[in-house]
């Protein structure tokens, strides 16, 4: 009888051990799947944020067309056509000389040498000083 009790106790403990092992194996698989899902979600989030950031950067880097540049006023420095309050170009840092052609950007009234700001505006669509967008002005003004 003692032997029978011992054998039944051993079988119960072996079955319990196998059940515990199956539970542990299932938990490992579930945790591994959750970890993979988390890594995949973080990776996808990073890719989407990078794509959105780069598309916004490309939109900001597009410059103005030459025909749009011609719409901005050009005046001779020192003349009474346009009041120019600054004495130097913020792009090349050289002072304006009397008679030099200076382009004034209408939304912010910042002034620059025509050649300096034209080069800038062909690759950017904002004022070099204050970064005010110049595209908005033409979209509204073209109606």
List the SSEs and their pairings:
Layout: H1 2-61, H2 66-69, E1 74-76, E2 101-105, E3 110-113, H3 114-123, H4 135-141
Antiparallel strand pairs: 1-2, 2-3
Question: What are the main properties of this structure?
Answer:
zinc-finger, RING-type E3 ubiquitin transferase, mainly alpha, Znf_RING, 3 strands, Znf_RING/FYVE/PHD, 143 residues, ubiquitin protein ligase activity
**Looking at the chains present, what oligomeric state does this protein adopt?**
single chain
CATH superfamily of the largest domain: Zinc/RING finger domain, C3HC4 (zinc finger)
- The tally of domains stands at 2
Give me the Rg, rounded: 36 Å
The shape is rod-shaped
Do you know the CATH topology of the largest domain? Answer: Herpes Virus-1
Strand order of the largest sheet: 1-2-3
Give the ordered list of helices and strands.
Answer: HHEEEHH
Indicate the CATH class of the largest domain.
Answer: Alpha Beta
Compute the number of helices: 4
Bin the helical content. 55-70%
Q: What structural category characterises the helix and strand content?
A: mainly alpha
Give me the CATH architecture of the largest domain, please: 2-Layer Sandwich
**What is the strand content?**
5-15%
DSSP summary, beta strand count: 3
- Low-pLDDT runs: 137-143
EC number: 2.3.2.27
GO cellular component, one term: membrane
Pfam family, one: zf-RING_2
Membrane topology: Single-pass membrane protein
């Amino acid at each position: 009888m003692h032997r029978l009790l011992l054998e039944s106790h051993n079988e119960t403990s072996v079955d319990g051990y196998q059940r515990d092992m199956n539970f542990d194996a299932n938990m490992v698989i579930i945790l591994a799947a959750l970890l993979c899902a988390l890594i995949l979600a973080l990776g996808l989030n990073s890719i989407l944020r990078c794509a959105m950031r780069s598309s916004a950067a490309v939109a900001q880097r597009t410059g103005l067309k030459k025909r749009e540049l011609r719409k901005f006023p050009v005046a001779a420095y020192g003349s009474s056509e346009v009041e120019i309050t600054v004495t130097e170009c913020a792009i090349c840092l050289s002072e304006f000389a009397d008679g030099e052609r200076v382009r004034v950007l209408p939304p912010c009234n910042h002034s620059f040498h025509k050649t300096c700001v034209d080069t800038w505006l062909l690759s950017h669509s904002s004022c070099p000083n204050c970064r005010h967008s110049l595209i908005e002005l033409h979209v509204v003004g073209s109606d």
